Amino acid sequence: MGRSKGGSGAKNGRQSNPKYLGVKAYGGEFVTAGSIIVKQRGTKIFPGDNVKRAGDDSLFATADGNVKFHERMNRKYASVVPVQA
Predict the structure, then answer these.
(1) How far apart are CA 85 and CA 7, in angstroms?
(2) Across-strand partners of 23?
(3) Cβ atoms of 80 and 67 closer than 8 Å
(4) 0.70 cut: is pTM over it?
(5) What DSSP designation does 58 have?
(6) Domain for residue 4, yes or no?
(7) Strand blocks (E) in the chain
């Protein structure tokens, strides 16, 4: 009986590329309209004021201002607070 299986020895090499998910703009940071705040899979964080959800569940700013993370009814939200002129 053979000691090893026949065929190719390439059993590794199936690692997928990194997806670069996570928070891109932290609380208190200034963002411009269209800036991505969070890259996520599913809605771990929900859109708040001046924030919308993209097709891939990313959150992006719809106005210039400072990012604010808060919690309401056991849900995490990301909002953008516009700066006063």
Answers:
(1) 70
(2) 38
(3) yes
(4) yes
(5) -
(6) no
(7) 22-23, 30-31, 36-39, 45-47, 51-53, 59-61, 65-72, 75-81
Number of domains in the chain: 1
- Quote the pLDDT of residue 52: 98
Position 8 in a domain = no
Q: How far is residue 72's CA from residue 32's CA, in Å, rounded to a whole number?
A: 25
Identify the domain containing residue 40 by its residue range: 22-82
Q: Which residues of the chain have pLDDT under 50?
A: none
Q: Max alpha carbon distance in the chain (Å)?
A: 82
Measure the N-to-C terminal CA separation of the chain; round to a whole number of Å.
Answer: 82
Q: Look at the alpha carbons of 39, 45, 50, 52 in this order and tell me if their dihedral is positive or negative.
A: positive
